[in-house]
Amino acid sequence: MASGIFILGPVELRCEGRREPVGTGRESLTLAALAVDAGRPVPLEGLVHRLWGDEPPHRPRTSVHAYVARLRKRLARCGDTAHLVHQAHSYTLDVDPDAVDLHLFQRLTADARALADEGAAERALDVMDQASGLWRGEPLAGLPGLWAAVVRRNLAAKRLAADVARLGTELRLGRYAQLLPDLTTLADQHPTDETLAGYLMVAQYGCHRQADALRTYDAVRHRLSDELGTGPGESLARLHRLILEQVPVGDLLAGTAARGTAPRTLPAQAPLVGREQEMARVLAAADSDGPAAGGTVQVITGGPGVGKSALVGAAARRLAPHYPAGQVHVDLRGYSPGLPPLTPEAALTSLLRDFGVPAGNLPADLPGLLGAWRTLLADRAAVIVLDDAADAEQVRQLLPGDSPSAVLVTSRHRLTGLPGARSLVLDDLPMDSAIALFRRIAGEDRTRNLAEVRRITEICTRLPLAVEIVAGRFVSRPSWTTGHLIGRLDREHRLGEIRNGPMEITATFAMSVNALDRDQRRAFRLLSLHVGGTFGAHAAAALTGRAFDSAERVLEELLYAHIIREPEADRYAFHDLLREYARDLAADEDQIEERDAARARLIGFYVRSCELAASMVYPHRGRLPSDRRPEFDASPPPWNDADHARRWLHDEYEALIEAEHVARSTGDGHTAALLSHALAPFFQEESLFATACTLHEAAAEHWRRTGDRAAEGAALVDLANAQTGAGRYDEAHTSGLRALATARAAHSRQTVAEGLRALSILAWNRGRHAEAKRWAEETLALRREDGDLWQISRALNNLGIFHLYLGNYEPSYRILGEALEGFRETGDAKEMNRALVNLANVHMKTGDYASARRILEGRLDYARKRGNDMERAIARVNLADAMTGREEAGERLSLYAEGLKTFLRLDDKRNASITLHNIGLVHQQAGRHAEALESHRRSLAISVAIGARLEECGALWGCGVAESRLGHTEAASRDFDKAMAIAESLGSEDDIARVRASRAELRAAREADADSLGESA
Q1: In 618-748, which residue ranges form alpha helices assigned H by DSSP?
Q2: Cα three-residue angle 296-300-302, rounded to 5 degrees
Q3: How far from 865 is each of 541, 737, 856, CA to CA, in Å?
Q4: CA 442 to the chain's CA centroid
Q5: Which of 140, 565, 823, 1012 is the one with CA 20 to 30 A from 971?
Q6: Are 47 and 30 in contact (CB under 8 A)?
């Protein structure tokens, strides 16, 4: 090789006989790491591991990229024979394999074996000489690290195998005396290698030294017995018998320790559907840790029926070309019904027999079996599938040790403590793959309605085994349609329908559950009674009646057994089908009193925790008197601060809503009403208005029915606020007046003040600013009498807004400044920011856009760091409002679009209407009048639907302006007339002036057109 990459010695790069310096040790190691897998992608993660093992530098990827960049330059100087390709987090050395001495060596040795098998021994020896000549010393000489050391060891094994093959070929040519010295040396270096021992015995016998040959056999037999606890294999034993019988030497070579045919014992299976990403991970790990690097151990775990065995079986077949010594499978029976897990002795016996070890030669004890197994695979690259492992200890005793083989393990339990193992957890199939799986089994002719097939796989929760069972059942019932199958699966007990003859999904689930101990099974059943999607350890403690530490421990045990999932840190969930199975078990095995008690504990936990969280997040919000709250035997989570409590409300929101529903539907309206009141400020902050209306209506009715007027008034205030947020203004007005009357009758000053505030906010939303101001002034008077500075500041903030909308800018600025100072004194940063936004609006109204923009940019920064989705959306829209330059139109539209997306998602109709109107104004300013008209019309439709008169007025004016620019003067005139009527009814001087100016502009345009027509005439 005049040019190429050389690693069978010191790493070198040669160009037409000229040695190209490779650089640092790491650079050389990078070249070697890519050359070993020339033509195949090496994942970046695997490359980092090859270079630094388990101790990478601070920024390993940056270093790798630097090494690769240098190597690219060096390769470029050698012409176009080799390239480094960067793709999808991997690098590939794109080169003719024969340009790498290792791959050329492997091809030549394979060619030589083929020639020898064809009887062309002399030609085979010539090729072997070429292969041997490629070696220049120790492979990867001088390169550091564990990976390089492992590769060196395995390449040495490859060279030994090639040398042994050469010796066998020469023996067949009768060169006994010439080979005797080399064979004696190699046999001494590898005293348990039966192939070498057999060749030495043939050479000795061929030199008429029968006694030496027999002594060699005895020495090997004793060595195998003493060191490995086993005896010689059948091939060597047969050779011994033939020598004793003094057969012709030419007959002996058929009895040497041949390797035999590579075993293929993988179970038959259908082609794998989906799992492309998971398969890529398994294959990439096998590439990274493959034969040249000393083998790989991969553990694939997941719940019952998720398709672990199917993935591993397909992967083993894909890996076969790189692991030519065989692909074997053993069922470890970790979860087989009615059968104990396979013992290590039984598993090793099965594996050794698969590789052709005679039964009579198998050691009798575990150490002997394990030694024989590891010796057998010491230099063989095979794929070993250990399927359905019970635990890590069972697997640990089956690992082949220092072998270039790939071991693929499946288990329903997470396995830890396996040296060097990589882990992969399987989940349900993606929807497209689940549909493809069903159609492959059921046939495309009967599954053309993809919407119905999608529904079937949804009911099966995309669990591969469930999909396969249902598809198989569908095939066996040719009169069924997919619609009929859906009807059966949609029944109350769908688990009973996921069956096909003797195959039932519940039987698979039972195998996993039966492997749990008694306490774990009880927890499994009771946890299924949880009312939400995910839950934390404190909720689990309440359900199971355990202490927190005990509950957390059992959750971890169930998690490791893949009975439950952990979709996010410290949040747990059931697979839907497993939850249904657990609930069925609970109904069969637990008394109804125990189940009811568990639910009561859970709901009590949620009420107490929700009230405590709300008091931390919203400390100024009034609470119902303590005599309305029963004592619940539950321990809330120990939140560090308000942010942690708010996060808990987000995490448990679904469960809290369902807890309220369960309490209400089972006749416990009191507990449901308590939850509704505790959640009210969270509903408002997160714009969850539709849900809030349902809960608060039920709460108000409960308190009315029980005669608790003060609590009823509070619930009606909550309801009025939610209805306002939902755009149900007429209902909100009724609820607000009822709340005010009820609170006054109950002499509840706190609720009266909240009722007045609710009515002021409602009036503002409807564009009735003078009315809003009157309600706000009453609110402020009450708050000043009570002397609560935070509540006074809150009332001032509202009053300042209403003055702003009435055009009273000077009093608005003064009042908002007082509110800001009050929030500063009480230390409420969030309300300070809201007051600042309102002051920014005053600046904009008075033409000081620079001051407004400075405030609003700070507000957006705060919202991004500390706010929720709604606060971030409002901050974006406010900042866009403060932008006036034409060159900023694109940025304004982007901010408005982001805000609008949030408002529509959260069903905040009023803010969506306002934002659409503002988008129309930007288009209008840019001369895009058709786009402006479309946005204004969308704004108009929303504002009319919710009764937001001020927004309706603005949208009509915007439509009129756009129509006039488009030449639709009659439509523009109608829009202006409607807008003026609303503006006058609201007393909005700004809007009256704006519409009046647009009318005048329209009249002037009409007159100009008329004059133009007259002159033409």
Answers
A1: 642-651, 653-665, 669-686, 689-706, 709-725, 729-745
A2: 170
A3: 33, 38, 14
A4: 30
A5: 1012
A6: yes
Q: 610, 950, 679: which is closest to 801 by C-alpha?
A: 950
Give all strands (DSSP E) within 807-891, no chain letters: none
Six token digits for residue 303: 């719940």
Q: What is the DSSP string of 406-434?
A: EEEEEESS-----TT-EEEE--PPPHHHH
Q: Give phi and psi for 406, each to the nearest 5.
A: -105, 125
- Token pair in block for residue 121: 């021994």
Residue 364's CB is within 10 A of a number of other CB atoms, namely 9
Planar angle of CA 489, 494, 498, nearest 5 degrees: 80
CA distances from 954 to 894, 944, 996, 998 (A): 21, 11, 13, 12
Q: Which two tokens stand for residue 41?
A: 């992608």
In the numeric block, the tokens 């399927």 are attached to: 387
The neighbour count for residue 570, using CB atoms within 10 Å, is 12
- Helices then strands, each counted (H, E), the chain: 44, 15
| The amino acid at 318 | R
Please give the structure tokens belonging to residue 675: 């939850």
CB burial readout 931-955, b (16+ within 10 A) else e: bbbbbbbbbbebbeebbbbbbbbbb
Taking the CB of residue 106, how many other CB atoms lie within 10 A of it? 17
Single-letter amino acid code for the residue at 959: C
Q: How many residues does the chain have?
A: 1017
- Whether the CB-CB separation of 469 and 505 falls below 8 Å is answered with yes
Strand-pair category, 564-568 with 82-87: unpaired
Q: What is the largest CA-CA distance in the chain?
A: 134
Q: Look up residue 526 and give its two tokens.
A: 């009771």
The closest of 695, 689, 691 to 675, measured between CA atoms, is 695
Q: Residue 457 to residues 427, 436, 448, 454, 575: CA-CA distances in angstroms?
A: 14, 10, 14, 5, 14
Task: Classify each residue of 771-810 as buried b or exposed e, where b means 16 or more C-beta atoms within 10 Å of its C-beta.
Answer: bbbbbbebbbebbeeeebebbbbbbbbbbbbbbbbbebee
Pairing between β-strand 42-43 and β-strand 503-504 as defined by DSSP bridges: unpaired
Q: Quick check: 302 and 463 in contact, CB under 8 A?
A: no
Q: Dihedral of CA 692/697/698/699: which sign?
A: positive
pLDDT at 526: 92
Q: Is the dihedral of CA 710, 713, 717, 722 positive or negative?
A: positive
Q: Given its phi and psi angles, is residue 776 left (phi above 0), alpha (psi -120 to 50 degrees) or beta?
A: alpha
Rounded CA-CA distance 809/805 in Å is 9
Q: Assess contact for 721 and 751: CB atoms under 8 A.
A: no
The secondary structure of 23-88, three-state, reads CCHHHHHHHHHHHCCCCCCEEHHHHHHHHHCCCCCCCHHHHHHHHHHHHHHHHHCCCCCEEEEEEC
Residues 6+ apart with CB under 8 A from 333: 339, 340, 341, 342, 388, 390
HSE-CB at 672 with a 13 A cutoff on CA atoms is 23
Which residues in the chain show pLDDT less than 70?
1-2, 17, 80-81, 88, 117-118, 228-230, 233-235, 253-261, 287-295, 337-338, 358-361, 492, 501, 625-634, 986-988, 1008-1017
Q: Which amino acid would we find at residue 414?
A: R
Which residues make beta-bridge pairs with 91? 42, 86
Tell me the CA end-to-end span of the chain in Å, nearest whole number: 96
Q: Which H or E run contains 138?
A: none
Centroid of chain to Cα 555? 20
Spacing of C-alpha 946 from chain mean position: 39
Which of 202, 136, 195, 121 lies closest to 160 in space, CA to CA?
195
User: Is residue 180 a contact partner of residue 203, using CB atoms and an 8 Å limit?
Assistant: yes
Cα(577)–Cα(581) distance, integer angstroms: 6
